[in-house]
Design a protein that fits this description.
five-stranded mixed beta sheet; 18% strand; 26% helix; binds iron/sulfur cluster; 19 strands; alpha+beta
């Protein structure tokens, strides 16, 4: 696939000041156009095939030119791990970006085909990322497991050294005083931390996962058990970055028939939409095709994802100031919008003032 270079060409048409404002409000640089996973109920509206990308040199140029105080990740309606162009895969481009930004881009992936082992390696062996000696959280922040990718992840898991059935420790008499998370619903709950000081009747299958052991009674440990382990860790991690494990978004267990995800979004569900989309910010995204305003709204039949990208152009220069609403800490979209965060794009403004003052003015004045 040849890159179109459209983003870099379009950015060059803006003035330096305009680019500065765009960058300061950018929360996502979507490196690829389209997503190889092709979920029919994609809540981000991704097209089901890769068709364009931002080159490593272009990304370096953009990141070096601007300041990106709100940049969260290198994907949006896409999967970061799809990036593999010009001899640079996602890991490489992540390193380039982290070095320039001095912080870690967030990674959420639904495990594109061929990346199963890459993701499993991180899930099984531990994955904190440090930049300049500071823990930045897990390298892969979130993995979406769905009915459509579970089987290939499980198949790879079964073939991995140390995790194949014949490699799993089997015992009826586990004496070691390590923490073991048992995930076999037949016996103990996933929440149970169990120290085996006595023998059991059935064979225990045990594998090391990160700094613990995951065990299953009566059957080899499978990827579902690993997921339970991660969900357990997530619930009990506290608030320390150094303790935060990769989050497993388990759509494998919770999606309804006829859905891959747990939310109903997009054209397909336009008459029965979920209350919230998956977006959690107002601001700007850069994609291989240009710079776009994004405003999070309640999904409606006209706007069934809850946001629509609107292109920013030099002649009609309107930029949505960055705003984030914290789903994680329970702020609902409704509360976020009620606070006056609805419809932020307004008049063109290019004032050479501090970002904060500018954004405050913008928030106060430019509702429509
Ligand atoms: S939901 Fe995520 S993984 Fe699925 S098509 Fe959309 S961007 Fe890709």
């Amino acid at each position: 696939m040849n890159p179109s270079h459209t983003l870099i060409e379009k950015l060059s048409k803006f003035t330096e000041k305009q680019r500065k404002i765009i960058y300061e409000n950018t929360f996502s640089i979507q490196l690829t156009k389209g997503c190889s996973i092709a979920c029919f109920d994609c809540g981000a509206g991704a097209k089901p095939k890769l068709s364009d990308y931002i080159t490593p040199d272009e990304l370096t140029e953009i990141l070096t030119e601007g300041k990106f105080p709100h940049l969260n990740g290198l994907y949006h309606a896409s999967d970061p791990l799809d990036y593999d162009f010009e001899g640079t895969d996602y890991l490489e481009i992540h390193k380039i970006a982290s070095k320039i930004l001095q912080s870690k881009p967030y990674i959420a992936t639904a495990v594109p085909k061929g990346k199963e082992e890459f993701v499993l390696k991180y899930l099984l062996h531990g994955n904190y990322e440090k930049i300049n000696g500071w823990v930045q959280g897990p390298f892969i922040n979130r993995v979406s497991v769905m009915k459509t990718n579970y089987n290939r992840i499980q198949k790879t898991f079964e073939q991995m050294e140390g995790y194949k059935e014949e490699d799993q420790i089997q015992t009826k008499n586990w004496k070691k005083n390590d923490e073991i998370i048992i995930t076999n619903e037949k016996s103990l709950k996933a929440e149970t931390i169990y120290s085996f000081n006595e023998g059991t009747d059935e064979n225990l299958f045990i594998v090391p996962v990160w700094s613990h052991y995951v065990a299953s009674i009566g059957k080899p440990v499978d990827f579902k058990d690993v997921m339970e382990y991660y969900k357990y860790r997530q619930k009990n991690s506290g608030h320390y970055l150094s303790n935060t494990p990769t989050e497993i978004a388990d759509h494998y267990s919770d999606s309804k028939p006829g859905q891959i995800h747990n939310k109903k979004l997009g054209e397909k569900f336009k008459d029965d939409l979920s209350d919230e989309g998956i977006g959690c910010a107002h601001g700007v995204i850069l994609t291989p095709k240009g710079a776009y305003n994004i405003q999070t709204q309640r999904p409606t039949p006209d706007n069934p994802l809850g946001w629509k990208p609107e292109e920013i152009t030099p002649n009609n220069f309107k930029v949505t100031p960055y705003k984030f609403y914290q789903k994680i800490h329970g702020e609902k979209l409704e509360g976020f919008l009620k606070k006056g965060n609805h419809r932020l794009t307004g008049e063109s403004f290019i004032k050479d003032v501090l970002t904060k003052i500018r954004l405050k003015t913008f928030d106060d004045i430019l509702y429509s």
